[in-house]
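COURSE: Structural Biology Practicum
ASSIGNMENT: Worksheet 4, Part C
STUDENT ID: 0417
INSTRUCTIONS: Below are two proteins. For each, the amino acid sequence is given first, followed by its structure token string. Answer the questions at the end about the second protein only.

PROTEIN I
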Amino acid sequence: YLISTADGKPISVFGWFDVPATLADAGAQADFAGALHFWLAWSVVVLSVMHGFMALKHHFIDKDDTLKRMLGKSSSDYGV
């Protein structure tokens, strides 16, 4: 939203109504929002990869049933 409205123009929602811009001609707003979007997106990617690696760590190093339970196996299958 902040990137799309940085030029001061509203956003049309399917032609039904317009969402007004919060600030007019805010180029710095677009730059800040773009940088924030970039770093938050990469944070989600890094956290997702870490989450996957930790599931593999539980499976191969800790030798517990965490990964199997994450994949939808019943915990009763493992005597828990």
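PROTEIN II
(use this one for the questions)
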Amino acid sequence: MALPTWPAGLPPLRGLASSAGSDSLHPEAQSTQFDDGPDRTRRRTLFVTTPLAMQLRLSPAQFVAFKAFHLNDLNTGARRFTAPVLLPDMSIGTRTCQIRGKVAWSAPKKFEYLVSFTLVVQDW
């Protein structure tokens, strides 16, 4: 089954200037203790995932499209998807992503929505 794709009518996942950042550039290494000898430390996964704080400014039509995509295509965040994301070299590239945790939204202006979530990007 193919992964869903970020809808073309939504902005690329670069976030607002104040929302960019991550609390963990790379996942922590996993340690195993042994009765004799030093602990063994290794990577947890075969690929690196980076959680990024996202905040998107959406129009009412974009908000409806995002809500439908999150609910129907992503099964409220359970599925992975491909999307254009802002990469460390400031270019836009397509990566496999997943929305982790809850999605918060607010409407600070009459015809504008702010949507916030944690985007986990594979091989960012």
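ANSWER KEY EXCERPT:
Q1: Residues 57 and 114 are 5 Å apart (CA to CA).
Q2: Residues 49-122 form one domain.
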